[in-house]
Amino acid sequence: MAKSAELTPLGVASLALLAEQPMHPYEMYQLLMARHEDRLVKVRPGTLYHAVGRLEEHGLVEATGTEREGNRPERTTYRITEAGHAALDARLQAMLAAPVNEYPVFPHAIAEAHHLPAKVVTGLLEDRLVALNADLDFLIHAQEAVTAKGLDRKYWIDITYQQAMLRTEIAWIRGLLEELGTGQLPWDEPRPALTGLSNKPKESLGKHS
After folding, report:
1. Which pTM does this prediction carry?
2. Which residues contact 188 (CB under 8 A, 6 or more apart)?
3. CB count, 10 Å around CB of 180?
4. What average pLDDT does range 58-70 have in this prediction?
5. What is the distance in angstroms between the CA of the first residue and the CA of the last residue of the chain?
6. Computed from CA positions of residues 80, 81, 82, 87, in that sequence, does the dihedral angle turn out positive or negative?
């Protein structure tokens, strides 16, 4: 049986869906996309089928039957098992309690940004602000949509979390841009690339003509 720590993000998402009700993988995929959970978990139909298959191998889900609609391939419906509930609960508890360094790309890029000219960095950060604001607008509209449907807030608190993280990053970048623009943050221009160096490999010292 799989340990809860071995559950992938897609495995967690799959178990969480099946904890709501039995369904087949394609239905699970459609629901994930309808809820825009692809913003949180990388998901494609093929990977989802594979994830459900692994969960079945470990006894965390089980097939309840198959159905066929017209000429479409048979679809197997799955439900979560007691072991699946236990694994899901354990994994969620660990994920909520223990911070994990997930090695995000942006902090790494910021740490090495001094290798680029200030004007280049400024332009790229302004582009990033446009994208971040678009993401924030999307999440604001998503919150309005679920609120209008009367969906309990506990089902979409991740939306407010993502909004808070975006607003924080947007504010931080705007502050950095202001520092760069006013010169409050000095920025040495990168040294020019060395020229005139031969790209030919050096001959071995032991080689005779």
Report:
1. 0.77
2. 114
3. 17
4. 86
5. 67
6. negative
